[in-house]
Task: structure prediction
Amino acid sequence: MNDFTFYSPTKVFFGKDKEKEIGKIITDYNYKSVLLVYGQSSIKKTGLYDKVVNSLKDNNIKFIELSGIEPNPKLSKVKEGIALIKEEPVELVLAVGGGSVIDTAKAIACGYFLEEDPWCLNAHLVTPKKALPVGTILTISAAGSELSNSCVITNDDTKVKSGFNSDLIRPVFSVLNPELTFTVSKYQTACGIVDILMHTLERFLNDIPCQYFTDEVAIGIMRTVLECGKVAYNDPFNYDARAALMLASSYSHNGLTGLGGNFYFTVHKLEHEISGTFDEVAHAAGLSVLYSGWALSVYDKLPYKFAKFARRVLDINISDDLECAKEGIYVLREYFKSIGMPVTLSELNIKESDHLPMANRITKNDTILVPGFVKIDKEMVLCIFDKIK
Result:
């Protein structure tokens, strides 16, 4: 196990109707003005917007709004938010939504203090030195951004999707009420299941041996996600299943499931090319497609870990590691199909003629290798695509 420093300072307010306390929560932190960031129309249709705004008003908290955040959040909205708070400064950025809304809020919180274009953060040209505090009210269990130090944004102009990490952008608090996810559609619930699972699985499939504690935490989260995910998919008003998914979302991506390991996130890095280029593709849909192609290309280099996942999470009883590992890849792919997720590029309307241009962009015309316990060049990217075409 590698040495590590673990830092997860976010205070979690969990339970029914906790969102109604948002004004008091903010007041207890001594913040008096906020930028309220949210998506499109859903929080108004569900009544959540009114609850939040009324609580802010009741506690005399001034607020300005940035709405219209889309999936695969865009740099243009980050710039719009920065411009808003340059004109009317605030003390807190409050994100009400899922990962796209929260990541937009994080980018605004850091970008406010930059002289450079905020894209410099995601392009890794500058390192953030300061950020406004961020708070969240979570409405979908998926990205885990409510506890994480990561922020992924898409550049509207170049179609490049990239993330940066900084403990400055870990939310100071997150409000988690499972009831707010009752209205999440079957498809978005399925996307959440895939996203949570892959945040954990990509950390678990690690080439550092003897991560006994970390592996057990990851195994518990993954079993919970697959079991409770299926329940929530079929019974969206099941509070306990929604609660389990919400907690799994948060703790799959705050660093807990990667303690002492190497952090590669290879499938995520490959996927950013897909949902960055094809904006209509949900991030989780790209992950559900890419996982089997990548896994079938590399499992023989780490068979004991893939087999451990197959046995402990999927209950596959095959003694040979290679056979067990391979069967686990197919079983997980069938699980994804059972919850309506795509498993081929063609289901995403990505043609074979798109494969080479994507591979060139991912590897910068074969001048870089995608990190992983098996580093990936352009030829291997094309082989992965070929397995899932």
Notes: The beta strands are 11-14, 33-38, 62-66, 92-97, 134-138, 150-154, 161-165, 173-176. The chain has two domains: 11-180, 184-387. The two ends are 37 Å apart (CA to CA). The CA atoms of residues 370 and 376 lie 5 Å apart.
